[in-house]
Specification:
seven-stranded antiparallel beta sheet, 3 helices
């Protein structure tokens, strides 16, 4: 199973690389609760009981790859990556654990699509709009 998404931006590959490889950049489009370094990253989510811990590898202005070492069920061992070419971003998430339910794959795909859209909007405008804020959602 693999999730694949593609978008074009107004930003160049160097700017996209900066966004994807820094805490400030990831906080601007994905989750405000994160810490990103050149070799490791942690992503937290207010409503989730665990954080995602990942190993980071990157090729400047070409590729950012994050390999999940611990976190959500079925995500440990998976990899997501952003391949950069000019102003284009090709995203892939693959290597989910055995038995990953198809309905969950659908939810993850939808989530990544919305997160990816926020990446593009941030790259184009410079205005942060994280998909996940640091606040815990309240029940109505």
């Amino acid at each position: 199973m693999m999730i694949t998404l593609y978008n074009e931006t107004e930003a160049d590959a160097s700017r996209l690389f900066e966004i994807l490889t820094t805490t400030e950049g990831q906080r601007a489009f994905w989750t405000q609760d994160c810490d990103v370094s050149p070799e490791h990253a942690r992503f937290g989510f207010a409503a989730a009981p665990v954080d995602l811990e990942v190993d980071v590898t990157a090729e400047p202005a070409k590729l950012v790859r994050m390999h999940c070492t611990s976190g959500f069920p079925y995500w440990t061992g998976s990899t997501w990556e952003w391949e950069l070419s000019g102003s284009a971003v090709l995203f892939r998430h693959y290597g989910f654990g055995e038995g990953f339910p198809e309905a969950d794959l659908g939810r993850v795909t939808q989530g990544w699509a919305m997160i990816h859209d926020r990446l593009v909007r941030y790259a184009n405008t410079g205005t942060p709009q994280p998909y996940f804020t640091a606040e815990v959602p309240h029940a109505s």
